[in-house]
Specification:
The chain is α/β, with parallel strands linked by helices. It folds into 3 domains: 83 residues, 3-Layer(aba) Sandwich (Udp-n-acetylmuramoylalanyl-d-glutamate--2,6- Diaminopimelate Ligase, Chain: A, domain 1); 224 residues, Mur-like, catalytic domain (UDP-N-acetylmuramoyl-L-alanine:D-glutamate ligase), CATH 3.40.1190.10; 156 residues, Alpha-Beta Complex (Protein-Tyrosine Phosphatase, Chain A). The chain is built from 16 helices and 25 strands. It has an 11-stranded mixed beta sheet with strand order 10-9-8-11-7-12-13-14-15-16-17, sandwiched between helices. The termini are far apart.
């Protein structure tokens, strides 16, 4: 809690501020409401709602009538927000080692790998799978949350005793200015493919937002780069810090010498400082070899001992990523977050190296998101899977049937190995009921998320729980 004149020294008002909020629905008595401008809403329009809920002060960028509470006017509330939150929460980011992870695919896996290798008792995680440190876990509304939540979360970590935070730094977060106040001690880069063009307008703009992470990395810090990625040179040129690389060539700081992927683990040989070492990773797929290399090199750059890091590899578990469900059925069921053309292609290529028969994929595409990606997803699924069931996935204000039609619009004349089942629950059931011995059902796009964003509400929905229910129902029928 702080007094208003501690946040704005030019203001003599001593009103006590309990927290900072940008959503009027979340405002509680004693909160400061800052009227940022969102994608579809100007929060100046919700001042009366915020005051009704107990807002004790306002920060605005427009002239407004007197509302009976202290009001501070700034030039741009969106630019003000991160720095205000940083001050209010006593600069928690500067009390920890900040580790940022960016890339089109692999952010969640790599950030989780870093947290596990360092140790969950001293390293926090913020990203798609929520937020956590030690035994503490909590939700997170965005891959990279708005600044009012981000700095509150970082303060939680400091109070818990964390010395490090590994967080996913999305391109949208940089585009929206959520990370303007942050600097990073170390930044990790996985890969870049086309994504989120609905937000950025062009692939060039998308890349530029990704590069911002490396421009906000401390000069004495480190940027960990994937030298095998086609955009490596572009990322390297944006770096202002020390650069370390990983990849298959001998000139990398961490070389991926060789690896063999098995149904339950991956054997990998790495080379670091002219010494080779073999590990048995619980992560599957060649893409996770790269994610592990990225996270491992980042931790080595921070000064952790290789032996200690290797001892923690066995503890890595990434919820909703290549999560094989435990079932006694003669077929397999896997849940994964893959939702980009690149991520889906890599996943399906890996799955078909396993001892399976057919692959049956359940997938949709999110509403109000990159519509140009939808037909690309349709193509890569039907070309790399035996059969596809297209369904809804966070349709938001869009009609799910329209989204599905976008997905299949280039397939109608060329493929017949797909169908549309709008209801996601029914789509999962159908896929599981279709599966024969040694078939693989893949439920993609949501991972371990436990919600669906519909037109008028957000409902509870878990792909993992729905799959287990469908498996149990089929088992009863098959008896």
């Amino acid at each position: 809690m702080k007094k208003l004149n501690e946040l704005y020294k030019e203001i003599g008002d001593t009103t006590e501020i309990k927290a900072i909020k940008i959503n009027s629905k979340e405002v509680e008595p004693g909160d400061l409401f800052i009227c940022t401008k969102g994608v579809t809403a100007d929060r100046h329009d919700f001042i009366d709602d915020a005051i009704k809920n107990g807002a004790s002060a306002l920060v605005v960028s427009k002239d407004i009538p007197d509302k009976g509470v202290p009001t501070i006017k700034v030039a741009d509330t969106n630019k003000e927000l991160p720095f205000l939150c940083q001050r209010f929460y006593d600069y928690p980011d500067q009390k920890m080692t900040m580790i940022g992870v960016t890339g089109t695919d692999g952010k969640t896996s790599t950030a989780t790998i870093v947290q596990t290798l360092i140790g969950k008792d001293i390293c926090g995680y913020i990203g798609t799978n929520g937020r956590s440190c030690g035994s503490f876990t909590g939700d997170n509304p965005n891959t990279t949350p708005d600044a009012d939540k981000l700095f509150a979360y970082l303060k939680e970590f400091v109070d818990y005793g964390c010395n490090y935070t590994a967080m996913e730094a999305s391109s949208e977060a940089f585009f929206r200015g959520r990370l303007q106040a942050n600097t990073f001690d170390i930044s990790l880069y996985t890969n870049i493919t086309s994504e989120h063009l609905n937000i950025h307008g062009s692939f060039e703009n998308y890349i530029e937002c990704k590069l911002q992470l490396f421009k906000q990395t401390k000069k004495e810090g480190y940027s960990i780069l994937n030298k095998d990625d086609k955009y490596y040179d572009l990322v390297k040129d944006a770096c202002v810090s020390n650069i370390l690389t990983y990849g298959k060539a001998e000139d990398n700081d961490l070389q991926i010498k060789e690896y063999s992927v098995h149904p339950t683990h991956t054997n990998i040989v790495f080379k670091y400082k002219n010494e080779e070492f073999s590990i048995d990773s619980p992560l599957l797929g060649d893409f996770n070899v790269y994610n592990l290399a990225c996270g491992l090199l980042g931790c080595l750059a921070l000064g952790f001992k290789l032996e200690d890091l290797l001892n923690n590899i066995k503890n890595i578990k990434i919820s909703g990523r290549l999560e094989m469900l435990n079932t006694n059925a003669p077929y397999y069921v896997m849940v994964d977050y893959a939702h980009t053309p690149n991520g889906i292609t890599r996943l399906l290529n890996f799955v078909h190296t396993l001892d399976i028969n057919k692959s049956i994929v359940v997938i949709g595409q999110a509403g109000e998101r990159d519509y140009l990606k939808r037909p690309k997803v349709g193509n890569v699924v039907v070309e790399n899977a035996s059969y596809a069931i297209f369904t809804y996935e966070d349709p938001r204000s869009e009609e799910p049937s329209d989204i599905c039609e976008d997905i299949i619009k280039e397939l109608k004349e060329t493929h017949n190995n797909y169908e549309i089942v709008i209801d996601r629950r029914e789509a999962i059931k159908k896929a599981i009921n279709m599966a024969k011995e040694k078939d693989m059902v893949l439920i993609l796009g949501k991972g371990s998320e436990t919600y669906e964003k519909l037109k008028k509400e957000t409902i509870y929905f878990s792909d993992i729980e729905e799959a287990y229910t469908a498996i149990a129902e089929r088992a009863l029928k098959d008896k």
